[in-house]
Amino acid sequence: MASMKIHAAVAVIFLVAAFLPCNCNPSTTTVDEPAKYTPKAPPPPPPTAYHAPPPVRPVVVVEGVIYCKSCKLRGYNRNMDASPLPNATASVVCYGNEASKYRVLNLTSTATDKNGYFMVMVYDVGMFDTRSCRVYLRSSPTPLCAAPVVPSNVNLGLTLVKEPGRAPLPKGARGAYHSKAALMYGPGAGGKCPPSY
């Protein structure tokens, strides 16, 4: 009787074991394995295209000073009886010839600084010629010093002369030029000067 119970218990154990999953075969393991990662270097960036520096453009520099005549403002020059006029402008006008089909080059200067200094960069060097280019008064920042004195008419221009040994100059500069006389405005008919700044 006891022997039958033992046999029955063993049979039950074998039946249960038959229905349980078995992890006996290592080739069918269900345990998660770490991912297989092979480190790779990032691809090199594409080669940077070489850009040649832009060619240096030839240029002619025209510069000068604009004054306010007979007014004692900041920087007054007693020998000239004039003061530098800030924020005024000049023009450089070059008149073409038959070769240039009589073109006219008209350039406005930078506004003058506190010392009355202005500059014009002439990049159309083929049009620049001291025989055909002139400097004109263009604008004054104040009606109290807006009457043309030198030259005495805004339609008259001053001739240009080359500055020997002017340095430093921008790259490509063919030279620097200034008018033969300083440009000057003066008070109008009322004779009242602008207030000192």
Question: What's the layout of helices and strands?
Answer:
Elements: H1 2-19, E1 59-69, E2 82-84, E3 89-95, E4 104-108, E5 117-122, E6 133-139, E7 147-150, E8 160-162, E9 173-179, E10 183-186
Parallel strand pairs: 1-9, 1-10
Antiparallel strand pairs: 1-2, 1-5, 3-4, 3-6, 7-10, 8-9
Quickly describe the structure:
By secondary structure, this protein is mostly beta strands. It has one helix and ten strands, in the order H-E-E-E-E-E-E-E-E-E-E.
Kindly identify the CATH topology of the domain at 59-163 and 171-186: Immunoglobulin-like
Helix/strand/pairing category: mainly beta
**Mind telling me which CATH architecture of the domain at 59-163 and 171-186 this is?**
Sandwich
Radius of gyration: 45 Å
Global geometry: elongated
The proportion of strand residues reads 25-35%
Uncertain stretches: none
> What is the count of β-strands?
10
Describe this structure in words.
This protein is mainly beta and 197 residues long. The chain has a domain at 59-163 and 171-186: Immunoglobulin-like (Sandwich), CATH 2.60.40. Helices cover 9% and strands 29% of the residues. The chain is built from one helix and ten strands, in the order H-E-E-E-E-E-E-E-E-E-E. Strands 1, 2, 5, 7, 8, 9 and 10 form a seven-stranded mixed sheet that branches. A hairpin with an 8-residue loop joins strand 3 and strand 4 (104-108). The longest helix is centred in the first third of the chain and has 18 residues, at 2-19. It starts with a helix and ends in an 11-residue tail after the last strand. The mean pLDDT is 85.
